[in-house]
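Hey, can you fold this one?
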Amino acid sequence: MDTTPQIPQYATLPSRHFWRRAVACIVDIIIFQAVILIVVYCISTVIPLDFRFAGWSYTQCGVEV
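Sure. Predicted structure:
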């Protein structure tokens, strides 16, 4: 026999729970974007990334005297 009292089940959570979860989600997104930005910056300082197309790049030649 089940003697535990039944906890009332709410169909929707109070609005404060929504705002807490929304703020936590936004904070997580900001933290993850900062970490990704730092990692990409560190990688790009070690390995220079050049996304230019090979046909579009040019070299400047100096005038020989």
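The radius of gyration is 28 Å. Let me know if you want another pass with a different chain boundary.
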